[in-house]
Protein: Flagellar hook-basal body complex protein FliE
Amino acid sequence: MNSISGLGNYQNQLSKITGLSDGQNQISKTDAKSFGSVLEKAIAGLNSNMNTLDQGTNGMISGTESDLGKVMINMTEAQLSLETAVQVRNKVIEAYNDIKNMQF
Structure:
């Protein structure tokens, strides 16, 4: 019984420190929408970088683009964006597997 009251006291103190009430501790729908919009923007940025890379590469091959430095910068940006997206995906999958393997 003592540990339960200690947990209640801890939760009350945490609410006072953070300034949030019990109803505010949970993620709201607007937070979920904002996470979705951030994720959507990140994927759109990755797609834009890949399209820019494709256009620059095709321009170099066809001879319409003569600035190799610009194409190389675009290539590096696209590569870094893709590597970041892959690492985020790997972390999400790892977290999902950790949650899936939890025993209650």
Remarks:
- The chain has a mean pLDDT of 81.
- The chain has three helices and no strands.
- Residues 34-104 form one domain.
- Helices lie at 2-18, 29-62, 68-100.
